[in-house]
Design a protein that fits this description.
Layout (H helix, E strand, L loop, with lengths): L6 H12 L32 H18 L4 E12 L10 E10 L3 E16 L2 E5 L8 E4 L3 E6 L4 E6 L22 H7 E6 L6 E8 L2 H4 L4 E7 L4 E7 L10 E12 L6 H5 L12 E6 L14 E2 L5
Parallel strand pairs: 7-13
Antiparallel strand pairs: 1-2, 1-12, 2-3, 3-4, 3-5, 5-6, 6-7, 6-14, 8-9, 9-10, 10-11, 11-12
Length: about 300
């Protein structure tokens, strides 16, 4: 059975390839302005912006574009809190993952979850967490011509070949967009975007609702908190079917240990991150053409990697 790139992989590949992250600690929280996400994405989910609001949005997007497009290489660590009110009490995350992200302009990226802790219940009024046997997070690489996913649960390596029109800088026009070398004009064409009141001083809160069906199949709403230097600090992504009561699921990301355009070990060593390592001999390797994520399903056990594997 052919696998499609899930929405988490799609968006995070986009984020890591377009932006530099400079995180400040923040408590994972209930979604801001999530009520707007309940509206149909086929129509603009908020009133028209005033001329002043549009001008400020344009200024922020243009500055963010200049910052993101200056990125040649990037590596950072991340924390991700997954919230699901059907799996854990309100205000308590269902699981937390930690991992690493790496990127080389224009089309190489690595996303790997190194640890994941699951909610096990409440004890003395506090949530308890622990590992679950044979449950791993995502691990994958894009080497510019292939997306390679290491499924550590199933011991499968899934290799998807990217068509020529999705390679190189054209990857922005693939189903992996959001901030791939952020182009302010294209973002406004593909998303309904607005600024909302930021959670703290000297930051910007950007909200984006996807216009296209292939994007709406991945997420309903994305919120990004930018620093005063227009570096993304926090990202909150809402599931395609997000509903505050019926389907309250979202992911909260924070990024740290950022190294942007700082490859002290040399470009050759850094680029080695995107040369795939052959999986163990007992793993199964599946090859297929790239499948867009329009009808993707979320898989916590997925994993992806880079390069070509013999």
């Amino acid at each position: 059975m052919k696998k499609r790139l899930n929405r988490g992989q799609s968006l995070l590949l986009s984020i890591l390839c377009g932006a530099c992250f400079s995180a400040t600690p923040a408590v994972a929280q209930q979604p801001q302005q999530a009520a707007g996400a309940k509206q149909q994405a086929a129509t603009q989910p908020f009133p028209p912006l005033s001329p002043q609001e549009q001008a400020e949005l344009d200024r922020v997007l243009t500055s963010w574009q200049a910052k993101s497009q200056s990125t040649k290489t990037l590596e950072c660590t991340f924390e991700r809190w997954h919230f699901d009110l059907l799996a854990a009490p309100a205000g308590v995350h269902a699981h937390k993952a930690e991992g690493v992200v790496k990127y080389a302009n224009p089309d190489k990226g690595l996303f790997r979850v190194d640890s994941i802790m699951f909610y096990k219940g409440m004890k003395n009024g506090a949530p308890e967490y622990g590992t679950t046997t044979n449950k791993y997070g995502e691990y994958w690489i894009c080497n510019g011509v292939e997306l390679i996913e290491y499924d550590r649960e199933q011991r499968h390596c899934n290799v998807q070949s990217l068509p020529p029109n999705m390679q190189g800088t054209n990857i922005f026009n693939s189903p992996l967009p959001f901030v791939f070398n952020l182009d302010a004009a294209q973002i406004k064409q593909r998303y309904w975007v607005r600024l909302e009141k930021a959670p703290k001083a000297n930051t910007y809160l950007v909200q984006a609702w996807p216009k296209l069906q292939e994007d709406r199949a991945q997420y309903k709403l994305v919120q990004v908190v930018l620093s005063a230097e227009f570096e993304p600090e926090v990202m909150i992504m809402y599931a395609p079917n997000f509903h505050e009561k019926l389907a309250p699921q979202w992911d909260h990301y924070e990024f740290s240990n950022v190294k942007r355009n700082a490859i002290n070990a040399g470009i050759r060593q850094f680029m080695g991150n995107f040369i795939p390592q052959k999986p163990p001999a007992d793993w199964k390797i599946n090859r297929q053409a790239f499948l867009p994520p329009q009808i993707a399903t979320e898989s916590q056990g997925g994993a992806a990697n880079n390069g070509s594997i013999k």
